[in-house]
Amino acid sequence: MKRRVAVLALAIAGPALAQAPCPLLGEITPEMLLGLWQAELPGQWDTSTLQLVKHPEYAGSFRGTLQRGDRSWQVAGEFTDGEFLLEESADGRRIAAAWAGEIVEGSCGREIRGTWTRDGESQGGPFVLRRM
Question: Which first-to-last residue range defines the signal peptide (predicted)?
Fold first, then answer.
């Protein structure tokens, strides 16, 4: 009897336990991008970890850290009109590289692709960010 009640309870709660629908690109906000990301930049460095948190001074912006092996970089950026922009710095004062990308359609805001450009260089390389 207990098992039957448990199965019935799951059947009734099933729709409530389902995941929220995937947001459309235009529905994604900067707050939805906060958290932990896996960063890939083919030909430059192995997989790294990017942690984004809400920026305490600028509404709708974020900051955080990029961890590559035993090195860490500070990052700050924003997501506006569908464009993901991020700057990284080794010392917190000078920009070392810039990231410009867009959320991949159909990824539910869990994948961003774009171009990573080292400061002072005109041509960058592709990057991929995937939500962890």
Answer: 1-18
